[in-house]
Every structure is written in C-alpha cells, then in structure tokens.
C-alpha cells in the first residue's frame, strides 16, 4: 500500500498534560487521563511516491510554514523507522476549528501517524502507534486507543504511551463544546508548555498529580458523576492557574469564556448537573450526563457569545478509512 487514510478524534483531558521533561521526545512531566471525542475529528490521507521531489502538505484552513514543517518532521521520523526515502503528499481536514484550543493537534497527529504508517505497510501495535503519535504532539498519543484513556508518564520514550481504560460506551456522558470565538490563539500549547515550570505553583501541582490520577480512575470506575465533575473542574482551573502565573503569563481566556463558566455554575444551582473543562484556548468544554445534552444545547443556543456548539460523545480512537481525500 502506498496511499492510506485515517480518521482520528480529538480528546479532552480530565487530568491534564502541561509541561514536558523532554521537549523533543515530548515526554510529559506527568501522566494524564482523557476521553476521545466523537464530534471533533481529523481525516488525513497520506500517499508516498518515488517521483515526488518534496513533501506536499495541504491542511485545510492552515497554510502556515511552521505547521507544514512540523508535519514533514513527523514524516521524517516515520521514514527513518521504515527506511523509506519517498516523499509524500498529505491532505488533511478537520471537522472543527483548529488552533483555537480545541486540541486539533491531538487528532491531527494521531490521524497522520496511522495513515502514514499504514501507507508504508508498517504494522505497529497500538502501544507503538501511540508512542509514535506522541512524538508529533504529546496529546495525540491519547487519540490512538478507544474511549477513556490513560497516558502513562513513563521514564523514557518506550514507556510513555496511552492505553484504553474503558471503551466509549462505558460511561454515559457527553462533552458539549461551546465555541466562543474562532480566533486562533496567539501562543500555541507547544510554546506555552515551555513556561510551565516558571510558575511558582508547578512544584505543588506535580507533588499532588499522581494522587489525582489515581482518584480520577477510581471515580470513573464507580461512575460517580458528581465527584468526577468536581475533580475535572478544579483540575482545569489548576492548569490555568499555572498558565496565569507563568513568566510571561499566559491568558487564554476571552470575556465569553468567563461568562460561560459562570453560566455553568448557575445551571448547577438551578438543578442541572454540568461541569466545565478548559484547554489552551478560549472555548469551554461542558461535561454533562448524556440525557441532559438537549437541555444544555437549548440553553446555550440562546446565549449571545456562543458562536458554535459541538456535541461529543465518548468515541473510538484512530481508525483507517477507505474514503481518501484525493
Ligand atoms: O499536545 P499539545 O501540545 O497540544 O498539548 C495539549 C495540552 C492541553 O490540551 C492543554 C492539555 C491536555 O492534556 O490535553
């Protein structure tokens, strides 16, 4: 095979990855736990050919040289493993806005990794695919396995990978993403993460994070939605506390972000059990029980600063597709 297509989901972390101990291998300072998202996917087709003289990379809505160089760099890694020196054509499309903090790099590098590896007939285990995707973008390693996923911190490249804790249908929850602006963030998570340990609070975060991971897994095992919501909200705010107190500070929020957070709290006092999470960006992830999705959507449709609502359920990880983009 020489041409292959993959679809991979974005993911939302409940316990976050923020800070690296090795930035070229993308080894994290701590492990993390996430869920794959059914409504936010990247589809990527990769073709290798002897007569291509250079990589041709076409990413919908992103023509930046730095993005193309990152994709080519990742292909180089795969070419090295397979000892192939053919150049490639890559076409990639997201079904959601990119670079606004919706973790498009996770779905993008998971899809790219699976499509490229398969195009070159390399048969990797899920673990090895996850290790390879991690080197494209850290959080991409969590978009390879299905459903609810743990990324092990590990000690080296071989031990830092993701695996599935539970299949998608295990926990009946949803992630309703409220897009408050399509504006691209000015500092990418790659640049932001370098600053993590300039925050005076980072040491405290790292001292407690292993316990937090144990706790979230116990809570998910018990399907205890209230404890789950409380823990993921405080974790999202803790990560933003690190960002806000970095040097220089990182402020990813827009006024709409704060308004939505306040509305989430108000909805709870009115009896609807919903909780928020945030990544690097202005948009807000609202985690609710599956049965409450329609009510939630109806409520937010009426709010002025809401530009778009994306409903997600827990999803499978990266998979192959026959629908090539070219
Ligand atoms: O993989 P990156 O470099 O896009 O980092 C993602 C970081 C957060 O989304 C903020 C947290 C996480 O664990 O997904």
Automatic annotation (TrEMBL):
Pfam families: MDD_C, MVD-like_N. InterPro entries: GHMP_kinase_C_sf (IPR036554), Mev_decarb (IPR005935), Mev_diP_decarb (IPR029765), MVD-like_N (IPR053859), Mvd1_C (IPR041431), Ribosomal_Su5_D2-typ_SF (IPR020568), Ribsml_uS5_D2-typ_fold_subgr (IPR014721). Residues 176-303 form the Mvd1 C-terminal domain. Its EC number is 4.1.1.33. SUPFAM superfamilies: GHMP Kinase, C-terminal domain, Ribosomal protein S5 domain 2-like. GO terms for biological process: isopentenyl diphosphate biosynthetic process, mevalonate pathway. Keywords: ATP-binding, Lipid biosynthesis, Lipid metabolism, Lyase, Nucleotide-binding. Residues 8-161 form the Diphosphomevalonate decarboxylase-like N-terminal domain. One of its GO terms (molecular function) is diphosphomevalonate decarboxylase activity. Signal peptide: none annotated. GO terms for cellular component: cytosol. Belongs to the diphosphomevalonate decarboxylase family. This is diphosphomevalonate decarboxylase. The lineage of its organism: Bacteria, Candidatus Gottesmaniibacteriota.
């Amino acid at each position: 095979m020489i041409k292959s297509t993959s679809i991979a989901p974005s993911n939302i972390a409940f316990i976050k990855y923020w800070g690296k101990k090795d930035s070229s291998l993308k080894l994290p300072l701590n492990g993390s736990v996430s869920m794959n998202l059914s409504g936010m996917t990247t589809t990527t087709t990769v073709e290798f050919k002897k007569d291509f003289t250079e990589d041709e990379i076409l990413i919908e809505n992103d023509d930046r040289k730095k993005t193309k160089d990152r994709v080519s760099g990742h292909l180089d890694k795969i070419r090295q493993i397979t000892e192939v020196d053919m150049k490639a054509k890559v076409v990639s499309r997201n079904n959601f806005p990119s670079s606004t903090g919706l973790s498009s790099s996770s779905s993008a590098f998971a899809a790219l990794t699976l499509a490229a590896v398969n195009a070159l007939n390399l048969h990797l285990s899920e673990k090895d695919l996850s290790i390879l995707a991690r080197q494209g973008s850290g959080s991409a390693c969590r978009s390879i396995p299905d459903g609810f996923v743990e990324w092990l911190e590990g000690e080296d490249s071989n031990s830092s990978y993701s695996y599935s804790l539970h299949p998608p249908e295990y926990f009946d929850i949803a992630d309703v993403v409220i897009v408050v602006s399509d504006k691209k963030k000015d500092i990418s998570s790659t640049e932001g993460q370098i600053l993590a340990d300039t925050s005076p609070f980072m040491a405290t975060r790292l001292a407690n994070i292993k316990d937090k991971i144990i706790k979230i897994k116990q809570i998910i095992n018990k399907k205890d939605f209230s404890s789950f919501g409380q823990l993921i909200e405080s974790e999202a705010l803790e990560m933003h506390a690190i960002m806000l107190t970095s040097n220089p500070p990182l402020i990813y929020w827009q006024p709409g972000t704060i308004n939505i957070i306040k509305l989430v709290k108000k909805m709870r006092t009115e009896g609807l059990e919903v909780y928020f999470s945030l990544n690097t960006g202005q948009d807000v992830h609202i985690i609710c029980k599956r049965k409450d999705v329609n009510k939630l959507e109806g409520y937010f449709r009426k709010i002025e600063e809401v530009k778009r609502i994306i409903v997600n359920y827990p999803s499978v990880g990266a998979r192959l597709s026959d629908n090539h983009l070219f």
